[in-house]
Amino acid sequence: SGGNVTLFAFDAGQGLTEHTSPYDALVFVLEGALTLTVGGTRVDAAPATLVRLPANVPHGVEAPVPSRMLLVMLKERE
């Protein structure tokens, strides 16, 4: 109930189209490189980079090279 952790693996050119989530999230880049768009702002992320995705703010992910990331969804306990 406090959230979840998901491992994503992308080939070069793959990603997630822009969307929103009702929860805050953290992206931790494990390998490769990612280009994130958060609220219209481009963020280039290398391994060991942590990026916050605020709730209800549009965001998307593109992988210019094969990459892996952890997505940590932060859900408040009810």
Question: What is the percentage of strand-forming residues?
Answer: over 45%
Q: Count the helices. How many? A: 0
How much is the average pLDDT? 95
Q: Termini, distance in Å?
A: 8 Å
Computed Rg? 12 Å
Q: Uncertain regions: pLDDT < 50 for 5+ in a row?
A: none
What is the H-and-E element order? Answer: EEEEEEEE
Estimate percent helicity. Answer: under 10%
Structural class: mainly beta
Described by strand count, sense and barrel closure, the largest sheet is:
4 strands, antiparallel
Shape: globular
Number-wise, the strands total 8
Instruction: Specify the oligomeric state.
Output: single chain
Q: How do the strands line up in the largest sheet?
A: 1-8-3-6
Topology of helices and strands:
Layout: E1 3-10, E2 15-19, E3 24-31, E4 34-38, E5 41-45, E6 50-53, E7 59-62, E8 67-74
Antiparallel strand pairs: 1-8, 2-7, 3-6, 3-8, 4-5, 4-7
Short characterization:
With 78 residues, this protein is mainly beta. It has strands at residues 3-10, 15-19, 24-31, 34-38, 41-45, 50-53, 59-62, 67-74.
